[in-house]
Amino acid sequence: MKKNSRLSAVLHALLHMAERHAPMTSDELAACLSTNPVVVRRTMAGLREAGLVSSGRGHGGGWTISRDLSTITMRDVYSALGEPMLFQIGHAEEMPGCLVEQAVNHALDDAMRDAEALLVARLGEVTLDIIAADFITRAKARKLTLSTDTT
Amino acid sequence: MKKNSRLSAVLHALLHMAERHAPMTSDELAACLSTNPVVVRRTMAGLREAGLVSSGRGHGGGWTISRDLSTITMRDVYSALGEPMLFQIGHAEEMPGCLVEQAVNHALDDAMRDAEALLVARLGEVTLDIIAADFITRAKARKLTLSTDTT
DNA sequence: TCGAATCGTAACAATAATAGTTACATGAAA
DNA sequence: TTTCATGTAACTATTATTGTTACGATTCGA
Q: Which residue of B has its CA nearest to A123?
């Protein structure tokens, strides 16, 4: 199966929206994300329901971020997407009759539960303004490289 | 995408093989795992290369576990499978030119790296004899339930 | 009021990863 | 030498994600 890249995509979109202080259309965001405007609408729908963004139709419409970047964590965004499954690995059978398989599932679940909790906690520690600050650092570094690069 | 259930499946297989002190054929294992003997061979091939099991052809052939359950961790088995990707979520683009996307990828990678390390460490803490002991506990509990259950 | 811009959404196609199946070759034991 | 069993390649089936097409609904501005 393909990997789920929705979290990555909407984080990218939110940061572009925050940079620009006017609504961005689905077409514009699709160009940023190298995807399709329908995919943008479909994915952003969850964020709208969660109150992270608002959308407007017609002339001058588009997507606007509703909250300050410092008040949104990656976990908020993950939740707004409906908390998709994080792990690629899973059980062969969910409710096995075989007691051996039950014991295996239980051992795997224990390990995965801890890892999932840690990941979600980490997502909750990162607000989007932190990522925006990292972007600015990278932009400065690139400028510096361009102006001193002799290749 | 379908979930990867190979780790679950081979753990299940290894425990059945350990219970039985004779080689088990791919057909027998396939019946235990509700799958196909070719899938069993394909998946077990990695464990054979890692030295966890051996296989024999012809009459009396089949699969035998090579090491004591107490010397094999879930992590060993995971490694023998080629350390498949653990996460369902990922980046939209691996090497983006967009600095915003680079910053997003970096933030996600940080969180996922920690979670992956924890999961792999947890897998390394569980030896297969621990799972076998849990199986025995479950078997006793089921017997007890059967003998006292009045429904 | 009309028309262009824009989102909302359903339905369908494309892509990719896993798992299952068929077919046949290889090797070992009775 | 026949039967049992693995080894493996090639193909199919299944499933989740992503992309596309089509059309309806709403909003703004001329």
A: B111
Say how far apart CA A37 and CA A127 lie, in whole Å: 26
What chain A holds in terms of domains, given with CATH numbers, is 6-148 (1.10.10.10)
Query: DSSP states of A35-98 as a string?
Result: S-HHHHHHHHHHHHHTTSEEEE-STT-EEEE-S-GGG-BHHHHHHHTT----BSB--S-SS-S-
Confidence of residue A144 (pLDDT cuts 50, 70, 90): confident
Interface contact A144, partner B, CB < 8 A: no
Min Cα–Cα distance to chain B from A74, Å: 9
Over residues B24-38, the pLDDT tens digits come to 999 999 999 999 999
Q: Which amino acid is at A64?
A: T
Instruction: For residue A11, give the nearest of B104, B115, B138 by CB distance.
Output: B104
Q: What is the pLDDT of residue B146?
A: 64
CA A114 to each of CA A11, A68, B11: distance values in angstroms, whole numbers, following the listed order: 25, 31, 20
> What is the Cα–Cα distance from A57 to A7, expressed in whole angstroms?
24
Quote the tokens at residue B113. 């790296």
Residue whose C-alpha is closest to residue A119's, from B37, B118, B95: B118
